[in-house]
Amino acid sequence: MIQLFHVYKSFGGTPALRDVSFRVRKGEFVFVTGPSGAGKTTLLRIMFGAEKASSGHILINGINLGRIRRKQIALLRRRIGFVFQDFKLLNNKTIFQNVALALEVTGANPSYVRKKTRQALRSLGLIKKEEAYPLQLSGGEQQRVAIARAIVKNPLILLADEPTGNLDPDLTREIMVLFRTIHMKGTTVVVATHNRELLKGTAIRKIYLEKGRVIKED
Ligand SMILES: Nc1ncnc2c1ncn2[C@@H]1O[C@H](COP(=O)(O)OP(=O)(O)OP(=O)(O)O)[C@@H](O)[C@H]1O
Ligand SMILES: [Mg+2]
Hints:
Elements: E1 2-11, E2 14-24, E3 29-33, H1 40-47, E4 55-60, E5 63-64, H2 70-77, E6 80-83, H3 95-104, H4 110-123, H5 139-151, E7 157-161, H6 169-184, E8 188-193, H7 196-199, E9 205-210, E10 213-217
Parallel strand pairs: 3-8, 3-9, 6-7, 7-8
Antiparallel strand pairs: 1-2, 1-4, 4-5, 9-10
Helix pairs in contact: 3-4, 3-5, 4-5
Magnesium ion binds next to α1.
């Protein structure tokens, strides 16, 4: 589903990713972990086509990201849910609208959009906040909106960047259960985190990054 071959990325002179190669199979659940600045966000952004690799190749669902046009990237992104580390919610739209928009752009009909949006909000405990605006919510609530928006379209791939960074331990557990449920339904899931609690005692595959390199896997 996701294949990286010798991917390098640098910003100006500083390398953020160095010779990163790995493969995530369809339906797999993978953690990408490592200290702050290791390159986790950069890696996820590259998989999403939001950032171009300096060299190397990336295949997503058989599509070579180095070769495709902007329009095809937009189509591919409809099938990828992305939870941004900094949420990227639209502050002038309600919670309902923020989540619904992710489905509307796929051309889904309004009644389906309404049903699925409510379902996603409910599964994240946000239904009472649907008419609120992002800036009226706590950090943890905004984070859950970002997750609702990423999962509402039943994506082929879910990329989540530090999705529990603002949540307390109970909510963190709930989000992990939610991600496992989504995974069980067949979605390929990649979660970037430096939260050791999240990684503890799970049989899920882990890719460790340090200074832009994959240092180990287990
Ligand atoms: N747009 C950018 N311009 C310049 N440097 C960048 C940019 N984005 C990332 N970097 C650099 O690339 C390196 C990796 O950053 P990245 O955000 O991928 O790390 P991270 O593992 O996600 O860290 P964190 O755990 O703090 O989120 C860092 O040294 C960072 O300063
Ligand atoms: Mg990051």
